[in-house]
Write a structure and sequence with these properties.
The chain is α+β, with helices and mostly antiparallel strands and 136 residues long. An 8-stranded mixed beta sheet has the order 2-3-4-1-5-8-7-6. It binds carboxymethyldethia coenzyme *A (CMX). Carboxymethyldethia coenzyme *A binds next to strand 3, strand 4, helix 2 and strand 5.
Length: 136
């Protein structure tokens, strides 16, 4: 079951350039920075109430975020992430509804979470992430 919007992923060319905008112009606090090698990104997280903002800077030209920036040089909203109580069940539901899965099984994402993405071509243009805390 989807419980809330966990975060919005925003593609940026440079964290160092963009973080000050969120801090100084919006007054948000950068709470966490992390490199996610599997996704070839460096991330910076902010809280806006219950929802987080995840800035994504590519670490390689073949990263998904680098490709997005090639098409959208100014950057912008890259994905929306929903928190779910059960990713596997959520993937089954989406797949059953005809959605193309990018990940058939969850992978490890930032912030000690398990994540899986749905393809934007079958979600009306919105790259959609499902996420849940890693089971310990
Ligand atoms: N939102 C909406 N549409 C998108 C998109 C996005 N973020 N990224 C690509 N697309 C669109 C493209 O514009 C393209 O549309 P057209 O065919 O109309 O031009 C289509 O999807 C296919 O794009 P593509 O360039 O052929 O494919 P890519 O190689 O860029 O791959 C995608 C696209 C979604 C499969 C890939 O980005 C992916 O696997 N994403 C999931 C993983 C990810 O995004 N990781 C980074 C974040 C990690 C994190 O949060 O930690």
């Amino acid at each position: 079951m989807i419980t809330r919007i966990d975060h919005l992923g925003i593609a940026v060319k440079s964290l160092d350039e963009t973080v000050p905008y969120y801090e100084k112009a919006l007054g948000l606090k950068c709470e966490h920075r992390e490199e996610v090698p599997s996704q070839k990104v460096r991330t910076a997280f902010f809280s806006a109430g219950e929802v987080h903002i995840e800035l994504l800077e590519p670490t390689s030209p073949d990263s998904a975020v680098a490709k997005f920036l090639e098409k959208n040089p100014a950057g912008g909203v890259h994905h929306i992430a929903f928190a779910t109580t059960d990713i596997a069940e959520q993937l089954k539901q989406a797949s059953g509804a005809g959605v193309k899965l990018i990940h058939e099984v969850p992978i490890e994402g930032a912030h000690s979470k398990m994540v899986a993405f749905l393809h934007p071509k079958s979600t009306y243009g919105v790259l959609t992430e499902l996420c849940a805390p890693k089971a310990h």
